[in-house]
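Batch 3, record 17
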Amino acid sequence: MSVSDATARRRVTASDVAKAAGVSRATVGFVLNQTPGQTISERTRARVIEASVRLGYRPNGAAQVLASGRSRIVVLVVPDWPIEFRFRAFLDEASLALDEAGYSLVTHFRHPHGPTRRLWETVTPDLVVGIAPFTPDDLASLRACGVKRILPDQTLFRPAEPDTSLASIDGPRLQVEHLRERGHERLGYAVFDEPRLSSLVTARHGAACTHAAALGLPALDLRCLDYRDRATDEVVRGWHEGGLTGIAAYNDDVAAAVVGAALRLGLRVPEDLAVVGHDDSPIATIMVPALSSIHFDSAALGRHFAALALSRVNGRPLPAGDPPANVTLIQREST
Amino acid sequence: MSVSDATARRRVTASDVAKAAGVSRATVGFVLNQTPGQTISERTRARVIEASVRLGYRPNGAAQVLASGRSRIVVLVVPDWPIEFRFRAFLDEASLALDEAGYSLVTHFRHPHGPTRRLWETVTPDLVVGIAPFTPDDLASLRACGVKRILPDQTLFRPAEPDTSLASIDGPRLQVEHLRERGHERLGYAVFDEPRLSSLVTARHGAACTHAAALGLPALDLRCLDYRDRATDEVVRGWHEGGLTGIAAYNDDVAAAVVGAALRLGLRVPEDLAVVGHDDSPIATIMVPALSSIHFDSAALGRHFAALALSRVNGRPLPAGDPPANVTLIQREST
DNA sequence: CTGAAAGCGCTTACAG
DNA sequence: CTGAAAGCGCTTACAG
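Prediction for the assembled complex:
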């Protein structure tokens, strides 16, 4: 049986490489992992590398994890939220930055009915990061699975405190500030009836109200819309008749729905009703009238996330300071 | 040192459970994995389960993978496309169905600059599925990593054939058919200038043209828009002046951009220009005028995907027939 | 009906 | 400068 038969038949292991290079299995590991503190002659090193390339050697990940206790995998647990426009850029940047550091980012979308086995029970991650806080059940499972590093953890995260990693706080503040500058004092806050988002809705609406109070304005009137029916029109009519003139929306889709309803009711936007969205998604530019919206740098947030994760994995102190979201308000035609 | 000290110190292993239950390590495995062909007394079984629950035992995934050669992980490789609205439902359903069968779905978002290590080099999956075809490099890496099962594979997938798993073919056909029924014969096809989507754009536009030809209509005039500027207006003006009256769009965002441009130009929709979108995303309902669009059952596609994956993993023949996308056209105000 | 033992493919002190 | 050996925590024939 020739070498090529053997490689076709079963996966190449470190033993195969050692045999081909005429060294021990340990030496193969030292060379390929660039283990510090080992002095390997240049000739041996070259022979090992040549053999591993020639045979197409890829270390068995499971064996590495078992032997070393480290997996270089970071699991990101995404709550059961709809995927929003900016999230993909966030993910791309985060996984690129982690990849450059030798880590793989695995995204675990948590779904409505919940998995029987959690992903970290399967993949032995070095670090598990939740965008939303973990439940006590999650924490027990994480502990039982030997996951030593978790974000957010108790030292960073108080359960009552809403998560800010996707710029949930600055956006609402800027929305209120902007509407106030444009002369609006009685404000509404529009969301879709999307139960999966309730924690974010609460956080953003709360931030808007806090800032309104600081400006001496009343709390924003929170209303749920449903984009699938015309009940939206009634909500908007109610706002208008009640004397509200400025609406902050949870995202651009909601803002578009409010604007659509206003147009159907014969209201002028922004003269009769000013509307500001959130996320600066494509629809904000596409809509007629174009939507004022909150823009933030999701790629920078992704890089910041990666930096946080790497600090945690390496046991270094977490970088201080706010995430570099660079939240700004883009004014267009709707305000 | 008490038991609780020990469990706090290090992860519970099968040996700990065996000791606590007074059986051998093998028996623990037999009970917990429900290994067929073993006859274990009910009392022993109960003792093992009780001990494993009490100690909070979770098997070490890496050790299981190494020993058994199977990981129960399916990696889904997602090309570098923007996430579209329906995709989340697809993912949710697919991962739920796989989870019920004891598998974990890990989604690997491929990013623009490519990872140095591919995810399957890290997690030892039983199956890797690509939404787009794999490159020769990918295939070499998959082979070297010992991934035995891949979808799509050579028997299923011819490189020239576009992927249909997200309903890329039926939608364009229905768009053309519908526009024709509404009396439109000279048609345009609108896409955003999004290079990451080029393969899907080509597939959908090609399908639309094929169906147009079957109906005796000329090919659809393909134009790229950019939602960030007003060049869209010029494209739409050109279409109108050139006598085109019906536009099929790659997705609802593009359709909304065409409608917006038409409105700015003083055209009536649908009288002067009829526009039909694709995906039936929220914006289709929200827009004024509301957009006709292509709806498909992304959750059913997700379940179908899971069934395909499980067949492949278990070495059963793949289910025959088309994916149950149930593609339909929803007529609203824009046509 | 149950247990002792080999083996999966690595990493990593340790001995030379 | 390099190799023999133990060990990571499981699974799984195999022997009793």
